[in-house]
Design goal:
The complex is a heterodimer of chains A (226) and B (308). By secondary structure, chain A is of the alpha/beta class. Chain A has helices spanning 41-48, 74-78, 96-106, 111-124, 140-152, 170-185, 197-203, and strands at 2-10, 16-25, 30-34, 56-61, 64-65, 81-85, 158-162, 189-194, 206-211, 214-219. Chain A has a domain at 91-155. Chain A is built from seven helices and ten strands. In chain A, the strands form two sheets. In chain A, strands 6-7-8-3-9-10 form a six-stranded mixed sheet, with helices on both faces. In chain A, helix 4 packs across helix 5 (140-152). Chain A is globular. The mean pLDDT of chain A is 91. Chain B folds into two domains: 2-55 and 175-306, no CATH class; 67-157, Alpha-Beta Plaits. In chain B, helix 1 packs across helix 9 (225-262). The longest helix of chain B has 46 residues, at 164-209. Chain A binds chain B through residues 49-51, 71-72, 74-79, 81, 83, 89-94, 102-103, 105-108, 110-111, 150, 154, and chain B through 1, 4-5, 8, 15-16, 19-20, 213-214, 216-225, 227, 308.
């Protein structure tokens, strides 16, 4: 469902972020991308989210060339993807309910759907008690669970998690990974980037290792080797 | 769909306004200053116009007739003058009236009145007072009076003198001052409005700069541009509306005070009376400029963060 075809990305300051990257992701796969900072993981995800366009090569999502999307088509495309970030990126002026409701509103869902789905999805990440709290009243792990709830509420085809455990302690890290696994078991494709050896080794799923903008390993049931 | 989105955008705009209370407060304060500048300019231009009208109405040309002039000849001339496009109005003061006016003016001056009584005949001639529509037109009226060697039915000139030539320098200077004052006034007006609008625009840009992360998150979760921009434009409009109401409230005591204290200072213009009489118009101007400035600045400020 995702296909990177000989993709290179050179930024305006001539720094090379990706070089000749080719790989594909099948539906319902759980793929981890590992590598040091600056290896090109985040650039890869930005290309997928249409935040950046490749200098060379093409990125496909279900046979659609992402770069051919017009500006006004991009929001609709992004609704097919749920994103989770290391720094959570919740809307600070909205409470938990509103944060999740916002992405449903943006997708044009009805008020009835929002009222029934938001509590449901919060139940899934085990955060029903904090539904009316604001982000600054939550712990890191709780914030990340809100972010995951927001990412899955529109039932996206794919979840992209960019170092979601980077700011969390081991217990919360374990919880988050379990939630991502659960989401994957329910049929959603997951792409995860991480530094965390423990996470990778406990998952036992496909691992793509990157170094200096290139893919150096792609293992079906990989371990953290860098 | 559009209705649901509109409802959500407006609701979210009101939420953002109340939750960012401090940012809202500072934006509203800056906007009050802008709107006060606009409001003051309305008053200044009204004041200037009233003053100019008063000055203009004090400028006139008097034609003094000889004592021998026949009243029918004078009336004939008055008709001719009133037919001129430059002439606003003419007032005829008969010899008897002129004498009466003179007596009234000098009623405390016994010597002059006595001297007047010594005379056999009324020493004053009739006067025709001419007012032009515009001060610059006195010149051509005076020329008309000169060119038409005005003679009565018996062939003798009936005009004693025209006082335009005496007032000429003063009148011409006054016309120049009036026209350059209004030119300068309009340039200053535009400049001040421009500066204060720029300041407001910048304040709102700063307020939205704080939200740039939020905007990027909204876009990442798939919100379309108008859905991201909408609430900010609503907030900008609310800034404008709230500032507008506060400005209008603020000008109530200000003009009251100005009206009271300027009553003795200047005849003809009372700020408070002007405010209450033209409240509808001022209300519309202030509210509309506030809301437009708020909405447009927000629209422009968010646009910057919506470009990919």
């Amino acid at each position: 469902m995702i296909y990177f075809d000989k993709v290179s990305k050179v930024y305006a300051d001539q720094s090379i972020a990706l070089q000749d990257v080719t790989f594909s992701v099948e539906p319902q796969e759980f793929v981890s991308i590992v590598g040091h900072s600056g290896a090109g993981k985040t650039t890869l995800l930005k290309l997928l989210l249409a935040e950046e366009s490749p200098s060379d090569g093409r990125v496909f999502f279900e046979s659609v060339d992402i770069q051919s999307l017009k500006n006004r088509e991009v929001p609709k495309y992004r609704r097919k993807i749920g994103v989770v970030f290391q720094d959570f990126r919740l809307l600070p002026n909205k409470n938990v309910y509103e944060n999740i409701a916002f992405s449903m509103e943006a997708a044009g869902r009805s008020d009835e759907e929002i009222e029934s789905d938001v509590p449901h999805v919060l139940d899934l990440v085990d955060l029903s008690k904090k539904i009316w709290n604001f982000p600054h009243e939550l712990s890191g792990g709780e914030k990340q669970r809100v972010a995951i709830a927001r990412a899955i509420v529109n039932q996206p085809d794919i979840i992209i998690a960019d170092e979601p455990t980077g700011n969390l302690d081991p217990v919360n890290t374990f919880d988050i990974v379990q939630i991502l696994k659960k989401i994957n078991d329910l049929g959603t494709t997951v792409i995860l980037t991480t530094h965390n050896k423990g996470v990778i080794d406990s998952l036992g799923r496909r691992v793509i290792s990157m170094e200096n903008g290139r893919i150096v390993r792609d293992d079906k049931e990989g371990r953290y080797t860098i | 769909m559009i209705w649901v989105d509109t409802k959500r955008i407006i609701k979210s705009g009101f939420f953002n306004f109340s939750r960012n209370a401090f940012v809202s407060l500072s934006s509203v304060l800056v906007m009050i200053i802008t709107l006060s500048v606009i409001c003051s300019l309305i008053f200044i231009s009204a004041f200037l116009n009233t003053s100019l009208d008063t000055i203009k109405s004090k400028v006139d040309v008097n034609v003094y007739f000889t004592r021998a002039a026949q009243e029918s000849d004078i009336q004939q001339m008055q008709k001719t003058l009133e037919a001129l496009p430059e002439v606003l109005s003419t007032t005829y003061v008969s010899r008897e009236q002129a004498l009466q006016d003179f007596k009234d003016r000098h009623e405390n001056d016994q010597f002059t009145l006595q001297a007047l009584n010594e005379l056999d005949d009324n020493p004053l001639g009739a006067v025709l007072n001419i007012k032009a529509k515009d001060p610059s037109q006195y010149e051509s009226i005076a020329q008309f009076l000169d060119s038409k060697a005005i003679v009565g039915s018996d062939g003798v000139s009936i005009v004693d003198k025209v006082n335009f030539n005496q007032n000429r320098v003063a009148i011409e200077q006054l016309s120049r001052i009036i026209s350059s004052a209004s030119k300068l006034g309009s340039i200053l007006t535009l400049l001040l409005v421009f500066i204060s609008v720029m300041i407001t625009l910048n304040t709102i840009r700063l307020a939205i700069y704080v939200s740039r992360e939020e905007i990027s998150v909204m876009r990442l979760v798939g919100a379309s541009n108008y859905y991201v921009r909408g609430p900010f434009v609503v907030v900008g409009t609310i800034y404008g509306a709230v500032s507008g109401v506060l400005t209008l409230l603020l000008f109530y005591p200000i003009t009251y005070y100005l009206g009271e204290s300027s009553r003795s200072l200047y005849i003809g213009f009372n700020a408070f009376a002007y405010y209450t009489q033209n409240f509808g118009q001022i209300f519309l101007i202030i509210m509309a400029s506030g809301m437009l400035i708020g909405a447009i600045s927000s629209y422009l400020a968010v646009r910057k963060y919506l470009k990919t």
